[in-house]
Specification:
The structure is a single chain. This protein is mostly helical. It contains twelve helices and seven strands. It has helices spanning about 1-20, 65-75, 100-105, 110-115, 125-130, 135-145, 145-155, 165-170, 205-220, 225-240, 245-255, 260-265; strands at about 90, 95-100, 115-120, 160-165, 175, 190-195, 200. The chain has a three-stranded mixed sheet, with no helix packed on it. A two-stranded antiparallel ribbon has the order 1-2. It has a two-stranded antiparallel sheet with strand order 3-4. β1 (about 90) and β2 form a beta hairpin.
Length: about 270
């Protein structure tokens, strides 16, 4: 018995000498003669330093939140139609559906996508995203971690309900006027030139597009080309706001906290 006590005393002394400076309460002591998997009961425990690395900042104004607000706006105003084609639509929960039989829309290629509502960025995400470092680092996926991009992507003034197929066909093509023949989507006077990467919207929404572009330019310091600026100025002057554009602007201001002044000044 005395021999065992003596051996333990030697081990404890050796452990204290060899490991005390590295041995903290609650932390394994290492390969000592006591046990490698036991925890120390001596001294005081100093917590590991807390990482100062922060998670990506996601703005409260983002695309997901914007879609929720827009669904509520359009549920409360069910008489409103899709942006590019003027089709009636309705919501089942968060899913928007288009009734082709009521609006005369003919799917060009993708009937599944044509039957649903998507939220179109009037000024495409690439147009405002490419000004940011995150876009240069990895495009839209990388910019999802950037609060500035989140804010721009979720700006309600730049979002409109669109038939999914038309939203996909528009892509990030520039707005233009290039044809008087419209046969891609049934009876609607909207056209896409895939080769030249341009999109011609129906006349009824050209003023809305122009005032949206001027808003994004002013709000986020986005440059427009001379050609785009001239086209938008012409559309803004030719196609004044209708009652819904004025009302929608007010509703968005109540939600988001700011109006589109290019609409407000013409509505007043």
């Amino acid at each position: 018995m005395k021999k065992i006590i003596f051996v333990l005393a030697i081990c404890l002394a050796f452990t204290s000498f060899s490991h005390a400076k590295n041995c903290r309460k609650g932390i394994a002591c290492g390969n000592s003669c006591i046990s490698a998997n036991k925890t120390c009961r001596i001294g005081s425990y100093t917590p590991a330093p807390v990482s100062t690395e922060t998670k990506p900042t996601i703005s409260k104004q983002n695309f997901n939140n914007a879609k929720t607000h827009l669904i509520n706006i359009y549920k409360a105003n069910p008489e409103q139609t899709t942006f590019y084609c003027g089709c009636e639509f309705s919501f089942n929960g968060k899913k928007g559906n288009v009734d082709f039989g009521k609006c005369g829309y003919t799917p060009r290629k993708n009937q599944v996508r044509a039957s649903r509502i998507e939220w179109e960025h009037v000024m495409p995400a690439e147009n405002f995203g490419r000004h940011l470092q995150c876009w240069r680092n990895g495009g839209r996926k990388e910019c999802k971690k950037d609060s500035t991009f989140n804010t721009m992507e979720g700006d309600l003034h730049n979002l409109q309900p669109s038939i999914g197929e038309v939203n996909g066909d528009r892509s990030n093509y520039r707005y233009s006027q290039f044809t008087k023949t419209f046969n891609q989507y049934g009876q609607f006077q909207t056209a896409v030139d895939f080769k030249q990467r341009q999109f011609q919207p129906r006349e009824e929404i050209r003023g809305v597009i122009a005032r949206t572009y001027f808003y994004m330019q002013d709000k986020y310091n986005i440059n427009l080309s001379d050609a785009q600026s001239k086209l938008m100025t012409a559309w803004d002057n030719t196609y004044p706001p209708d009652e819904w554009e004025c009302e929608r602007n007010k509703q968005i201001e109540r939600i988001q906290g700011n109006d589109n002044k290019f609409i407000t000044e013409k509505c007043n």
